[in-house]
C-alpha cells in the first residue's frame, strides 16, 4: 500500500497573533500554523518540523514532555505515582528525560524533568527516579533507536481492557490506527523493577507502535513526543470504545482489508504529531507555569 500524500492547508493570510478572551489578551495562533510551508504558503507536514539546534530540540522535547504530563492529569491517567513518559535526549541518545517520581502529573514543569543515563544515573535534575520507569523505558530506547518517546500509565479503560488479555479489535475508524500494529505482553509478574522484564516488553513490542501490558496497562511509542503521547490517548479511547460497544451488544468489526487501509490513513507519525497540536495549545494557554 502506498503512503498517503502529505496534507496541505490553505495559504497563510493573517499574522501569527490573534485576540482571544474577554480581556483582549494576545495569544499565539494555534501551533499548527508554525508548521513548514511550501512555496505557495500552504502548510505541509509529511514529517514533523526539525529544530535548528541540539539545544532547541532538547527544549522542544522537554516542553512537549511537560505538556504531556499535564494532559495525562486532565485525562485522568494519574493513578497515584504510576505512569511515566520519556523522551530521548538529542545530544546523548543513550540518555532520556523522564518525570520525577512522586510529583503529580498536573504539576510537572520543564525544570522538574530528570535526565537519566543508560545505567540509571540521574545526571540532571534533583528529583526521585522511578525505578520502574527506568527498567521499562531504558530497554525500549535501547531496542528501538527509532523511538524518541514512550508513554505508559494506568488509565482506567486501558487497565480494564488489558485485564482481558486480547488485542484491540478494528471496531472504529480511530481504533484502526492500531490494527496489526500492537502486541500483548502476557507475562505479568508484579511491578517492573528488573531490566530483564523491560527487555522482554521491548521484545514483545518489536517494531510496533503499542503494546498491551496484560493486567497492567497500555504503552505506546513514537518518533516524536507528540506522536507517542497522542497514541497513548487514542489507545485508551479505543479501549473504552470497545468495552462500551461490547457491553451494549455485539459490535461489527471493520473487515480486514478496510481496516488495513484505514490503518495506513490513521496511524502515521505525522498524523499523531498533528493530533497533538490542539492539545498543546490548550495546555500552554491555560497552564503557562509548566515552562518554568
UniProtKB/TrEMBL annotation:
Identify the stretch(es) annotated as Disordered: 1-31
Mind telling me which InterPro entries this protein's record contains? Aldolase-II_Adducin_sf (IPR051017), Aldolase_II/adducin_N (IPR001303), Aldolase_II/adducin_N_sf (IPR036409)
- UniProt GO cellular component terms: cytoskeleton
Which molecular-function annotation in GO is an example for this chain? actin filament binding
Where would I find the Class II aldolase/adducin N-terminal domain in this sequence?
A: 63-243
- Per UniProt, what is one Pfam family of this protein? Aldolase_II
Q: Where is the composition biased (Low complexity)?
A: 1-14
The protein's matches in SMART domains, at most eight in alphabetical order, are given as:
Aldolase_II (SM01007)
Which SUPFAM superfamilies is this protein grouped with?
A: AraD/HMP-PK domain-like
Q: Name the protein family.
A: Belongs to the aldolase class II family.
Which NCBIfam families does the record cross-reference, listed alphabetically? PRK06208.1 (NF004855)
What protein name does the entry list? Class II aldolase/adducin family protein
Q: What is the lineage of its organism?
A: Bacteria, Pseudomonadati, Pseudomonadota, Betaproteobacteria, Burkholderiales
Amino acid at each position: 500500500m502506498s503512503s498517503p500524500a502529505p496534507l496541505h492547508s490553505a495559504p497563510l493570510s493573517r499574522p501569527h497573533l490573534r485576540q482571544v478572551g474577554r480581556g483582549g489578551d494576545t495569544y499565539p495562533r494555534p501551533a499548527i500554523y508554525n508548521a513548514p510551508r511550501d512555496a505557495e504558503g500552504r502548510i505541509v507536514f509529511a514529517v514533523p518540523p526539525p529544530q535548528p539546534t541540539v539545544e532547541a530540540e532538547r527544549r522542544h522535547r522537554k516542553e512537549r514532555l511537560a505538556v504531556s504530563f499535564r494532559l495525562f492529569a486532565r485525562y485522568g491517567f494519574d493513578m497515584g505515582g504510576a505512569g511515566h513518559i520519556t523522551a530521548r535526549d538529542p545530544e546523548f541518545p543513550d540518555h532520556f528525560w523522564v518525570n520525577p517520581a512522586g510529583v503529580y502529573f498536573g504539576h510537572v514543569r520543564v525544570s522538574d524533568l530528570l535526565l537519566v543515563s543508560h545505567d540509571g544515573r540521574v545526571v540532571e535534575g534533583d528529583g526521585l527516579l522511578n525505578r520502574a520507569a527506568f527498567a521499562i523505558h531504558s530497554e525500549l530506547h535501547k531496542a528501538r533507536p527509532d523511538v524518541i518517546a514512550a508513554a505508559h500509565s494506568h488509565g482506567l479503560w486501558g487497565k480494564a481492557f488489558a485485564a482481558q488479555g486480547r488485542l484491540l479489535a478494528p471496531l472504529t475508524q480511530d481504533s484502526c490506527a492500531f490494527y496489526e500494529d500492537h502486541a500483548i505482553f502476557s507475562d505479568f509478574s508484579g511491578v517492573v523493577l528488573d531490566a530483564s522484564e523491560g527487555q522482554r516488553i521491548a521484545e514483545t513490542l518489536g517494531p510496533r507502535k503499542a503494546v498491551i501490558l496484560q493486567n497492567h496497562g497500555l504503552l505506546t511509542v513514537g518518533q516524536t513526543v507528540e506522536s507517542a503521547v497522542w497514541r497513548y490517548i487514542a489507545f485508551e479511547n479505543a479501549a473504552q470504545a470497545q468495552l462500551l460497544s461490547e457491553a451494549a451488544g455485539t459490535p461489527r468489526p471493520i473487515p480486514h482489508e478496510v481496516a488495513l487501509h484505514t490503518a495506513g490513513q490513521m496511524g502515521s507519525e505525522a498524523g499523531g504529531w498533528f493530533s497533538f497540536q490542539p492539545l498543546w495549545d490548550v495546555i500552554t494557554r491555560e497552564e503557562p507555569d509548566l515552562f518554568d
